[in-house]
Design a protein that fits this description.
Low-confidence stretches of chain B: none
Strand content of chain B: 15-25%
Low-confidence stretches of chain A: none
Distance between the termini of chain B: 43 Å
CATH topology of chain A: Translation Initiation Factor IF3
Number of domains of chain A: 1
Shape of chain B: globular
Largest sheet of chain B: 7 strands, mixed
CATH topology of the largest domain in chain B: Phosphoribosyl-aminoimidazole Synthetase, Chain A, domain 2
Oligomer: heterodimer
Structural class of chain B: alpha+beta
CATH architecture of the largest domain in chain B: Alpha-Beta Complex
Helix content of chain A: 25-40%
Mean pLDDT of chain B: 93
Mean pLDDT of chain A: 94
Chain lengths: ~70, ~350
């Protein structure tokens, strides 16, 4: 699993970070973001790449788990 | 001319996407005591594009101000876009901008050449618009900002409001949507150069000729589509006119590349703010999320949204085509229904 911390980044930086990381085609990514725009945009990118995304909240952040179906 | 500084890297948000949300703004401004004046024909209460103040039988004063962080890396182009965007509010009222003052904020370490190129862009557009820049104010700050405060004139009985649309009107949009999404994608180097150049050309295009094209027609309402997106500005028009609107999403002019970028998550924060504000008044069942994103996408130096009687629409379109090749009839005004806007 690849773990990414995208807190403190504003749009579209979290998506760019994930895009770079997804070039190695891992089966599972955990991405931590701290705002709703990033949550939505990162979810969209992962889904667009064919991953299934689940979101949980943790200490005010959003933790996104992107897994290959 | 390319600059050594990549301007957009210095900006947190792109252009009108940096605008405070409409809902927040109205909370911030509520409850202040203001003077009433019979000469004030349009003030803040109507959320219109500019204020209009009656001077005499032939003239009313139009005033507006607009500024934002860099949307493109070329400082000369950024200056032109900021100026075209600032003048646009006057054109949206059917007026002619005449005087302007620069508003500028630049980091202390920004090369003098870059600052000068931004200003050169502003003066270049002002000349084209027939506007005299009479001065301004420049301060130092971490994020570059540029725009202008603009004064213009309009006939006190012939100015265009953002309300006044009537059932039976059709709606015309004069520029393509999707600019905010493209600018967000550009920050990730996701946009082809040709597409970005086409967007830059569109943002640099004054709404002057489109405004002039409207003069012979009985336009009922007009506004420019900027940071609050097509949905935000159309909602103001629908609510202010006590009508609803039916918009044909397939007819809405747009940069096609923005659709895939939206699906990939290159959606600016402003689009989410606009959706939160206007979404409850919009029905969009059956319209794809990406097409909806285009409708909520904040535009910088966007086009005019014009409500005109159906019988005059084709003639107005024919006049507009020369100055606004992307102009399209995007929908119709109907009697007020449960929702203000229906996307179909």
């Amino acid at each position: 699993m690849t773990v990414l911390d995208a807190r403190g980044l504003s749009c579209p930086e979290p998506v760019i970070l994930l895009r770079q990381a997804m070039k190695k085609k891992d089966d599972c990514y955990e991405i931590r973001v701290d705002n709703e725009t990033s949550r939505e945009n990162v979810t969209r990118y992962a889904e667009h790449q064919g991953y299934h995304v689940s979101v949980s909240e943790e200490a005010g952040d959003y933790v996104l788990l992107a897994q290959r179906p | 001319m390319e600059s050594a500084v990549r301007l957009t890297k210095l900006a947190k948000c792109a252009g009108c996407g940096a605008k405070m949300g409409a809902g927040t703004l109205s909370r911030m401004l509520s409850g202040f005591e203001t003077l009433t004046d019979p000469n004030l024909l349009v003030g803040f209460e109507r959320s219109d594009d500019a204020s209009v103040y009656h001077l005499d039988d032939e003239r009313a004063l139009v005033q507006t101000v607009d500024f934002f962080p860099p949307v493109v890396d070329d400082p000369f182009v950024f200056g032109q876009i900021a100026a075209a965007n600032a003048f646009s509010d006057v054109y949206a009222m059917g007026g002619e901008p005449r005087l302007a003052m620069n508003l500028m904020c630049v980091p202390e370490d920004m090369p003098e050449h870059t600052v000068r190129e931004i200003l050169k862009g502003g003066y270049h557009k002002a000349l084209e618009a027939g506007v005299i820049i009479t001065g301004g104010h420049t301060i130092h700050g971490p994020e570059p900002l540029y725009g202008l405060s603009v004064t213009g004139f309009v006939h006190p009985k012939k100015f265009l409001k953002n309300c006044g649309a009537k059932p039976g009107d059709v709606l015309i949009l004069t520029k393509k949507l999707g600019g905010g999404i493209l600018l967000t994608g550009a920050k990730g180097d996701m946009v082809e150069k040709e597409t970005l150049l086409a967007l830059e050309r569109q943002m640099c295009t004054l709404n002057k000729k489109s405004a002039q094209a409207m003069t012979p027609f009985s336009v009922h309402a007009c506004t420019d589509v900027t940071g609050f997106s097509l949905m935000g500005h159309a909602l103001e028009m629908a609510q202010g006119s006590d009508c609803s609107m039916v918009l044909q999403t397939t007819e809405i002019p747009r940069f096609q590349e923005a659709i895939e970028l939206a699906e990939m998550g290159f959606v600016p924060a402003g689009a989410y703010r606009n959706r939160a504000f206007a979404g409850p008044y919009v029905q969009a069942e059956g319209v794809s999320r990406a097409v909806q994103d285009i409708c909520y996408d904040p535009q910088t130096s966007g086009g005019l949204l014009i409500a005109v009687p159906e019988g005059e629409a084709e003639a107005l379109m024919a006049t507009l085509k020369a100055s606004a090749p992307a102009a399209a009839i995007i929908g119709a005004v109907v009697t007020r229904k449960e929702k203000s806007i229906y996307l179909v």
